[in-house]
Specification:
By secondary structure, this protein is an alpha/beta fold. It is 39% helix and 14% strand. The protein has a single domain, classed as Rossmann fold (3-Layer(aba) Sandwich). α3 links the parallel β3 and β4. The longest helix is centred in the last third of the chain and has 15 residues.
Length: 126
């Protein structure tokens, strides 16, 4: 089942409010995961640890994570999914828009395999 892990640049409010609004959704803020021990960690470290727990990482950071995922594909390294958010589609301070878009993905894709899957989140209509 799909379980989101939001990166440290996404407010924990998003995880908290998404959990309140959507029954059964699985979402954890990086700040609260493992008592925050991965705050400031390298992307590869976070993604490797998330993968071990089957967590799909949600991030605005396409600049560093996309090349890492490309490298992993070439090396045969697996991950448990990444959802990229584009600042042009959903602004980082638009908590409601991000919550709504993640809720839509979770409702439609929660039972799908997220192994090595990459998705680019789009804003949902209001």
């Amino acid at each position: 089942m799909l379980h989101f892990l939001t990166d440290e640049h996404i407010s924990p409010v998003v995880a908290r409010e998404l959990s309140k609004r959507v029954q059964g959704v699985k979402v954890t803020a990086l700040r609260h995961w493992k008592d925050g021990q991965f705050l400031g960690a390298e992307d590869s470290t976070i993604l490797e640890a998330a993968s071990k727990e089957g967590l799909t990482f949600v991030s605005y950071d396409q600049r560093t994570i996309r090349p890492l995922l490309k490298q992993w594909v070439e090396q045969g390294v697996h991950h448990s999914g990444v959802v990229f958010v584009d600042e042009e589609s959903i602004r980082p301070n638009d908590f409601g828009g991000l919550i709504k878009a993640l809720a839509a993905v979770w409702k439609m894709e929660r039972r799908a395999s997220w192994k090595n899957r990459v998705m680019f989140l789009k804003a949902t209509s209001r």
